[in-house]
Amino acid sequence: MPVESLSKKKIRVAKIVAVLKKEYPNSKCSLNFKNVHQLMVATILSAQCTDERVNKVTPALFRKHRSVKAFANANINELQDLVFTTGFYVNKAKSIKRSAEQLIENHNGDIPDSLDLLVKLAGVGRKTASVILGVGFKIAEGIVVDTHVGRINRLLKLTKEKDAVKIERDLIKIIDQPDWIVYSHMMIDHGRAVCIARRPQCTDCVLSDLCPSQRLFADR
């Protein structure tokens, strides 16, 4: 297969975005939250954990801790118990408590709307910061790359990379910035519904005509 130029990738990905917008018109973050700090906490918990599991944990967590200050003052053992089923609960509880302390110490308890400031908070890497900015503030600072986004974009031959930062770097070159936020949500929805990791449903895929990999699965 000939190497696809950057300009041709831009044309193809624009078609992909248009198709996905029709297929998933209500695509959005699947984490449940009522404010930006709750979004931050839920996103920290979502590392190596499904959003479905996080959404089962956060109602009790947010009833117990109703503010940034409450999380900063939380008993770490109780916090660990509340987030236990999300996995890596010791580190997650520590990050949630410490980040709340940092918000009070450095930001008057408010969530900063800057990538550079967000990544200085405990438990907040670039991916989490991009979720907070995109979902919480509607700021398209980057493209969130989770396992669905990485896997599907490799199948689409829009990237060859496996590292999330490198995948994001490839995608921001070809996707229009106004679509950065929704692109990840649509990819995640598509990965859950059709382009399933263990068995992509290529015959039912609206992207089959735009996907160089569809023929690899067609006869399986």
What does this structure look like?
It is elongated and about 55 Å long. The protein has 220 residues and is an all-alpha fold. Helix 2 runs antiparallel to helix 8 (126-136) and helix 5 crosses helix 6. It has helices spanning 6-23, 36-45, 51-64, 68-72, 76-83, 89-107, 115-118, 126-136, 147-155, 164-172, 180-193, 214-218. The protein folds into 2 domains: 6-26 and 145-214, Helix-hairpin-Helix base-excision DNA repair enzymes (C-terminal) (Endonuclease Iii, domain 2, Orthogonal Bundle), CATH 1.10.1670; 36-136, Orthogonal Bundle (Endonuclease III, domain 1). 57% of the residues lie in helices and 0% in strands.
Q: What are the salient characteristics of this protein?
A:
12 helices, Endonuclease Iii, domain 2, 57% helix, 2 domains, mainly alpha, 0% strand, Endonuclease III, domain 1, elongated, 220 residues
Summarize the structure.
By secondary structure, the protein is mainly α.
What's the layout of helices and strands?
Elements: H1 6-23, H2 36-45, H3 51-64, H4 68-72, H5 76-83, H6 89-107, H7 115-118, H8 126-136, H9 147-155, H10 164-172, H11 180-193, H12 214-218
Helix pairs in contact: 2-8, 5-6
Give the total of beta strands: 0
Find the CATH superfamily of the largest domain. Answer: Hypothetical protein, domain 2
Stretches where pLDDT falls below 50 for ≥5 residues? none
CATH class of the largest domain: Mainly Alpha
Structural class: mainly alpha
The tally of structural domains comes to 2
**What is the general shape?**
elongated
How would a crystallographer describe the biggest sheet?
Answer: none
Helix fraction bin: 55-70%
What is the radius of gyration computed over CA atoms, rounded to a whole number of angstroms? 19 Å
**Oligomerization status of the protein chains:** single chain
CATH architecture assignment name of the largest domain: Orthogonal Bundle
SS field, number of helical segments: 12
The CATH topology name of the largest domain reads Endonuclease III, domain 1
Q: What is the residue-averaged pLDDT?
A: 95
Topology as a string of helices (H) and strands (E): HHHHHHHHHHHH
| End-to-end CA span | 21 Å
The proportion of residues in beta strands is under 5%
